């Protein structure tokens, strides 16, 4: 039986250097320094600050919510934690041994376009205006499809999911229609017996009292048409200035 070259060389080396061959077979990392020493593995949650090479591996712990390492390696450093797309909730936060896990769907009011793949961002759902209803409501991967409410239907709210609702067909016998149904509002009815719609029988009309007209003597006593009482001027002409000041003050107070 003929032996192949590789096993034959290994057999010869094991005979010549039995200790070195045994050490290499027992090296868990499978990597060695330039001097032939077996390099240490950095466990999960640790990264290689100095990878195996001229010297042995130097490991460092990964930072919580910052970096992670999910494998054991003699060369790989801690990797930065991933960030979920905008408006996509975080299902599981990043740990030193595991990357961030994003929720499978966007936050309410947003959707993830399926045609863009998993790397796309969540987009806000279109909101149907008043008078429009959602033919296709906003879903995890589909945007809202709005349509104007047809005759006999209405929508009074802005929504990304509410459809047009059927109008109220008619008012009751004891009601009166105030407003007919339109795309933006339902039929509006009101009770016929409401006091706002009719006057109670026998209820007299309340008129505001009118002021009696001024007589000629009363009209001439107040030439400036002021509602304030003005005292008559005294005969003493020496005190006319204080009297005018009093009159002016009375007029100002009446205007305040």
UniProtKB/TrEMBL annotation:
Residues 61-102, 105-146, 148-189 form the TNFR-Cys domain. SMART domains: TNFR (SM00208). Residues 1-23 form the signal peptide. It is found in: Cell membrane. Disulfide bonds join 81-94, 84-102, 125-138, 128-146, 149-164, 171-189. GO terms for molecular function: coreceptor activity; death receptor activity; nerve growth factor binding. Keywords: Apoptosis, Cell membrane, Disulfide bond, Glycoprotein, Membrane, Receptor, Signal, Transmembrane, Transmembrane helix. The keyword Transcription regulation does not apply. The keyword Cell membrane applies. TNFR-Cys repeats lie at residues 61-102, 105-146, 148-189. GO terms for biological process: apoptotic process; Rho protein signal transduction. Pfam families: TNFR_16_TM, TNFR_c6. PANTHER family: DEATH DOMAIN-CONTAINING MEMBRANE PROTEIN NRADD, TUMOR NECROSIS FACTOR RECEPTOR. SUPFAM superfamilies: TNF receptor-like (SSF57586). One of its GO terms (cellular component) is cell surface. Residues 217-228 have a biased composition (Polar residues). Residues 199-231 are annotated as: Disordered. It is a single-pass membrane protein. This is Tumor necrosis factor receptor superfamily member 16-like.
């Amino acid at each position: 039986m003929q032996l192949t070259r590789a096993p034959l060389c290994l057999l010869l080396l094991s005979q010549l250097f039995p200790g070195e061959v045994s050490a290499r077979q027992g090296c868990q990392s499978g990597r060695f320094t330039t001097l032939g020493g077996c390099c240490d593995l950095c466990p999960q949650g640790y990264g290689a600050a100095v990878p195996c090479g001229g010297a042995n591996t130097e490991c460092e712990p990964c930072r919580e919510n910052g970096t992670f390492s999910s494998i054991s390696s003699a060369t790989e450093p801690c990797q930065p934690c991933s960030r979920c797309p905008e408006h996509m909730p975080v299902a599981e936060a990043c740990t030193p041994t595991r990357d961030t896990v994003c929720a499978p769907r966007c936050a309410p009011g947003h959707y993830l376009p399926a045609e863009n793949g998993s790397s796309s961002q969540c987009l806000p759902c279109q909101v149907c205006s008043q008078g429009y209803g959602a033919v296709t409501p906003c879903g995890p991967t589909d945007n809202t499809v709005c349509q104007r409410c047809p005759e006999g239907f209405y929508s009074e709210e802005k929504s990304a999911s509410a459809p047009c609702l059927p109008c109220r067909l008619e008012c009751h016998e004891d009601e009166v229609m105030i407003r007919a149904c339109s795309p933006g509002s339902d039929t509006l009815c009101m009770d016929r017996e409401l006091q706002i719609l009719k006057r109670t029988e026998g209820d007299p009309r309340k008129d505001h009292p009118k002021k009696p007209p001024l007589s000629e003597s009363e009209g001439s006593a107040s030439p400036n048409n002021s509602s304030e009482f003005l005292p008559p001027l005294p005969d003493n002409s020496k005190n006319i200035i204080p009297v005018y000041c009093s009159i002016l003050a009375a007029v100002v107070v009446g205007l305040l």
